[in-house]
Amino acid sequence: MQIQWHNNTTLTIKGKDYRVVVNPIIEESSKSIIPIKENDLTISTNKIIYDNTKGYNISGAGEYSYQGVTVRVRSVRQDSAESTFNLVSLSAEGMLVGLVIGIKAELQAADLEFLGSPDILIMSMSSSFGSEKSIQLINAVEPRIVVPIYETESQLQALSSEYGVKQEPQAEFGIKKADLPFDTVEIKALEPQIK
């Protein structure tokens, strides 16, 4: 499995037989940030519905299966947030990936139960959901690997310091199930490829 962060909340998760594009567009009127390929699976965590004639698009709650990838989506509306977003649990290559992107407040118990204990947690860090709340989320779901989508270097540094990791952001991150860490949380920092 290869994970690449493109810009804002857009990223790709790909394997030999699949490519998942998360949030290919940010606003309803925008064009895709990256090209969508034939047979791509596109997922919207910000619930923007767009026409993906080349592949299969998921923008609402439910359970889906496409090209060997199983996806569960839970729509969440938080009391302190004006908009809703989708929590995503994705299973591919024997690994469970949790996507918490666009969050503005702490998740409720039912949301944490939905995420379970993912092998990989991809989460956005924003001014309203900074490093302290991110650490609480990580401790609640206990992933093996965390891929932070951060706004500032200080957010990344605070997260890395908490887990005793000092790592330069890389362009892409690859992992196989056999290489998942045991009894530890690893932070895998990515660098946005579109600036």
Task: Outline the structure in words.
There is one protein chain. This protein is of the alpha/beta class and 195 residues long. It has a single domain, classed as 4-Layer Sandwich (Metallo-beta-lactamase, Chain A), CATH 3.60.15. The chain has 3 helices and 13 strands. The chain has a 7-stranded mixed sheet. It has a 6-stranded mixed sheet with strand order 5-4-3-2-1-12, with no helix packed on it. Strand 10, helix 2 and strand 11 form a beta-alpha-beta unit. The chain is globular and about 45 Å long. The two termini are 24 Å apart. 33% of the residues are buried. The model has no long low-confidence stretch (mean pLDDT 87).
Range of helix content: 10-25%
For the terminal residues, how far apart are their CA atoms? 24 Å
| CATH class membership | Alpha Beta
Number of separate strands: 13
- The domain count comes to 1
Order of strands, widest sheet = 6-7-8-9-10-11-13
pLDDT under 50 segments (min length 5)?
A: none
Mean pLDDT: 87
- The radius of gyration computed from the alpha-carbon positions, rounded to a whole number of angstroms, is 15 Å
Q: Label the overall shape.
A: globular
Looking at the overall shape, the CATH architecture is: 4-Layer Sandwich
Which helices and strands occur, and which strands form pairs?
Layout: E1 2-7, E2 10-14, E3 19-22, E4 41-43, E5 56-58, E6 62-66, E7 69-77, E8 84-92, E9 95-100, H1 109-115, E10 120-124, H2 131-141, E11 145-149, H3 153-162, E12 173-174, E13 186-187
Parallel strand pairs: 3-4, 4-5, 9-10, 10-11, 11-13
Antiparallel strand pairs: 1-2, 1-12, 2-3, 6-7, 7-8, 8-9
